[in-house]
Each structure stands twice: as structure tokens, then as C-alpha cells.
Design brief:
The protein is α/β, with parallel strands linked by helices. The protein contains 9 helices and 11 strands. The strands form 3 sheets. A 7-stranded mixed sheet has the order 5-4-1-6-9-8-10. It has a two-stranded antiparallel ribbon with strand order 2-3.
Length: 242
Amino acid sequence: LIIGCHITGVFDVNRQHTLPNDDFGLVQAWADSIASMGLTAVLLHNGFSPKTIRKHQSKHLLFRRVQHAAAFSPNVYRYGLYEQLLRSWPTPVEAVFFTDVSDVVVLNNPFVQPLFLSNPQSVFCGDEPKPLQNDWMLDHGTFFRQAVPDYARFEADFAHLPLLNCGIIGGSAAVMLPFVEALWALHARFNGHNNTAFTGDMGMFNYLVRTRYNGHVLHGSPVNTVFKGYETQRSDCWFRHK
């Protein structure tokens, strides 16, 4: 499965505006790329109309309506929804990717790649061409530095490693279910009342990966193209992220 989440009608602090309801154009490229690979996607949403769902639902794209929890930003609450979906899926899931839906497309089927198949214990994810310790991430972590006892030490210990990006996360279901369970548990414990201008999604993701999965994380090419590289001509990676 490839699973995405599209929450609308809620102010998005990353985009600094509220996404409109029922605009399938925002996820069209993501959905089309998945269909072109013959894969199955599940789109968690709170705003698509029955008419839009009837038009676009297929064997490659399944819609699941969800309720958003106002205490969390959409890009944080999605991890709780991912956990619920995986636990309730009616048939066994062997492997899964969770991706952003408005700026990620699938370039190659990740589940058949030799690197993926030969690393069943790994977390695969996106990354960015910058270190963990950068001005944006330092601002992003302000809330966690007060809330999470060892967050500052994590920032110092892994300062010069690449910044990982949670817009693409995947692996075997045996790894991903406990991973997303742990990620949601961290957000539920520490991030429910974060009123800063930063949602904490990138900070908590990097914290979890680096402190618990650092020996089993694979990122960058061939998993993802250069983030914000707009490498539209590349076809060698599994995903393009902007």
C-alpha cells in the first residue's frame, strides 16, 4: 500500500493558508503516478464529496473519510490515522509507504526494487540537502527542547547528519507498524498543545529515526530525488519530492 492523508478546512501552518475542500487537483499527480505503477493507494481525507469520490475511486485509489483532531496539526495527526488504518486493514499488508500527497509522485515501484527487498528491517525515507542542524530545524525544535528530556542532546549528537524528510516513509509492515505507532505515541505525549509556528512533524520524525533506527535507515537516491530540486527529468529514483 501507499497511504496518504489530505486534511482540508484546517489552517496549515506550513503553507500558511487553509486548503480548500473537494479540490482533487491537489492530489491528482500523486494518484495518477500510483495508478501508472499498478499500485494501490489509500487516501485518508475529510473533505472530498461523494461525487468526487465516485469519479476518482478505482482499484488503484481508495478513499477513507476520517475525522481530524483539532488539538493537532494535520501533518501530525496523520500518524495516528496511519496506525489506525494499518491495524484495521482487512487483508495482510506486507509493505507500505506513507507519503505527502500534494508534492510527491511515484517514479518507480518501490516494492520490487532490490534495495528494498534486501533490507526488510530498514526504514526508507526522504531527505534534504542540508544537515539536521540548520536554522529552520533549530527554530522547529524550540517547543520540543522544553518538552522532551533528551531532545537537545539528540540535536547535538546528530547535528551534522543529513536532515531526514517525513514526506516519504516506508518499509515492511513489520517495521512500519511499530514505527508509526511509536511516532504517534511521541506526538500524543509531547506535541498535543504546541502553539508555536512549527508543527513538530520534522523534529519528532528525525528524533525517532536517529535515536531508535539510526542503524537501519536508508534515504536519498534511489529512494528520493533531491528535495525541492524539481528534477522533473529524473526517472531513476522511487519518488520525486518537489
